[in-house]
Design brief:
With 324 residues, the protein is mainly alpha-helical. The protein contains 14 helices and five strands.
Length: 324
């Protein structure tokens, strides 16, 4: 921004510059900004070790860097994220996109071809596993608050196919209880950075322990339900009181992983397992693709079909019953 002002010769006040910078920085989410900062910091450390300047980013040095990352076992997805972070640095400075440089573009293509681009996906959770996780969570006097909160996180996250950032972003004013269940307003999400919002419904569950409506009702008896307050907040170290600080996506992920470990679920469980579990379970029960996408808010059918194909791998299989 300073370079832009210097280049144009504009005269701006500090207050005007501060207002512009506030919106300028808001063009990416806070979580994305943190990831970019993390990746840029590691790039800086690598550059310091080679006694070169981290910016402007030199394409040849970057090609050497991502080669080192690949040989160090970093995934293609991680390397792609690093390129996005450094590309953002160059974009903000008004320089050309890094992937336009042959050294970077072809080296990354070679990494993808050599190591493959298939991501390591989270295993989906089933409703039965969800209930076993809830049953395994400690719920004694010292854990009463956390149990109620974590149960609501698991059930609402599963029924709504919510991402961690969507769970943490919920305020009490975003949820309305009706005879049919809960109407939930998602004000912003990973695929809705401009904040258009989405409305989803969470119906009553057949089982009390995994019902999102009952779970939220139990949590509301403990939490501060002012409409502007976040639904899911932290607790003091011993869990005796609420801190009123909004949980972070990382804390949500830890809650999910810890509950799975307590239940003895020996699979690759991540925060995405709730979302994947919903899509997989809905497909198993014959829910239409359009209905599944409406709940998951996927914009592309092939994303959802990844879950459905895996679940129905042997249903109506073309190799079945052909005389083999």
């Amino acid at each position: 921004m300073t370079e832009i002002v210097a280049r144009t010769g504009l005269v701006v006040t500090e207050a005007e510059a501060a207002r512009v910078m506030r919106y300028f920085r808001a063009h990416v989410s806070a979580n994305t900004a943190r990831c970019y900062a993390h990746d840029f910091k590691h790039w800086q450390i690598w550059c310091d070790g080679r006694r070169i300047q981290p910016t402007p980013v030199d394409p040849l040095q970057l090609a050497i860097y991502i080669t080192a990352l690949a040989e160090d076992g970093k995934s293609v997805g991680t390397i792609a994220r690093v390129l996005s972070a450094l590309n953002k640095v160059e974009e903000v400075a008004g320089r050309a996109k890094l992937r336009t440089y042959r050294e970077v573009r072809l080296t990354f293509a070679g990494i993808c071809r050599t190591h493959g681009v298939a991501p390591i996906q989270a295993d989906p959770l089933t409703p039965n596993q969800l209930r076993s996780m809830i049953a395994a969570m400690p719920d004694g006097d010292a854990w009463e608050i956390r149990y109620a909160r974590n149960r609501a996180i698991l059930t609402i996250g599963f029924a709504g196919a919510l991402r961690c950032s969507e769970i943490t972003g919920l305020n009490w004013g975003d949820v309305q209880k009706t005879d049919d269940g809960l109407r939930v307003k998602l004000r912003r999400s990973k695929t809705d950075q401009l904040g258009k919002g989405a409305l989803i419904g969470l119906p009553w569950g057949a089982y009390a322990s995994s019902c999102p409506v009952r779970s939220l009702a139990a949590w509301s008896q403990i939490a501060d339900t002012d409409s502007a307050m976040p639904i899911f907040v932290g607790t003091t170290p011993r869990g005796s009181r609420l801190t009123h600080r909004r949980l972070t996506p990382r804390q949500i992920q830890n809650i999910i992983k810890r509950a799975a470990a307590l239940a003895g679920i020996d699979r690759r469980i991540t925060s995405h397992s709730l979302r994947a579990g919903f899509a997989t379970t809905a497909a198993r029960h014959g829910k239409p693709l359009q209905a599944i996408m409406r709940q998951t808010r996927h914009k592309r059918a092939d994303r959802v079909l990844q879950y459905i194909r895996e679940e129905n791998l042997f249903a109506d299989n073309a190799a079945d019953g052909i005389g083999l």
